Amino acid sequence: MSASPMRTVPILIAREYLQRVRTKGFVFGTVGAPIFLLAIVLVPQFLAGDGILAQREIALIDRTGVLAESLVPRLEDGGFEVELVADAEAEDDAIERAREGEISGVLVVDERTLQDGSATFRGLDSPSTLRQMALRQAVNQTALAARLTDDADASLLALLQGGGLEMDRLGEEEEVDETEGLAGYAVGFIGAFFLYFVLLIYGNMVLRSVLEEKTGRIAEVVLSSVRAWELMLGKIVGVGAVGLTQILVWVLSAVLILSLGVPAAIPFLGEMEFLADLPAFLPSAGVLAFFVVCFIMGYFIYSSLYAAVGAMCSTEEEAQQAQLPVMMLIIVPFIMLLPVLEAPDTTFAQLSSLFPFFTPIIMFGRVAVGTVPAWELVLSIVGMALAILAVAWVAGRIYRVGILMQGKRPTLPELWRWVRRA
Hints:
The chain has 19 helices and four strands. It is mainly alpha-helical.
């Protein structure tokens, strides 16, 4: 007689969890990868030290007499520390300092700059591509403003650069924040892609675990002391706990990198000050909470299907073919994601996000964009919960029969017979 499920299931969950988190691959993938990324952001600034800062120090020689006043602020906005050279003796001194590597170089603007925006940069080494772009942009904007009018302001330059488009949605009192909209789109796509990726990875992990125990005859031994549904539940929850552990570590690491690592590196990457806006793209607590809900519920739906696929197959080749329908249920909503993010309020987006097998990916994208009514959100969660119950019931019956079966993969009529008679 088997032990109580209240005792056996936690033991099976702990077995599946500890068996995976103790591997070197898990430790490296979960902890090592974020540390490596953080090191890429932080280590160069400590190794380079003052050398990086010196590359931002330039001397400016203005032979036009009219560009320096506007050019210096633009260069400083681009991340450079500018020293304005006033006379010929100071020019020679600046060039000598550039030759000795004390400063990055000397930027010379003259009458040619006013004509076609050309300038000369003198230094031991050529600046990086990003620094060259920052220099050219500052010089061109200043020269253009000087050519158009003596008192050209930022509004004129904004007009020349194409202007902007503010979105004011009818029926809403508040205007749509362009940055907020872009952040929602980015979070929706990246989060949905991450869900797509982890559902495939951890679903396959469940399939391979079931297949290994079946082909190695381990399941026959285990089933002598526990019920089939207990073994399946322990395997699904154990692997899911591994996935949730990795996701939590990765999310916390991403938050630390964006909120601490990137701002700390900004002083050493002056021409990349736009990175300071990255923390604004971090998802809200509500979006993160719904991401966890989508992962957990989506994982239970698909891992149950993968467990059934593993139980009905006897070889790796059979499993590769049999899992294709399950994979398509994950791939199709991801393919549909971009049109949904572009128009999240359409009937197509609403209906597809309420289909339980598509909900984890598509509904998360809509939630990140911020256009989902509360009733749709509740309905989607209820739909996923009902789908979990239905899929677990069917998969459990297939698992109960298939885990002990060997030989040819069953046909659809045979699977239906398993479900009815198990």
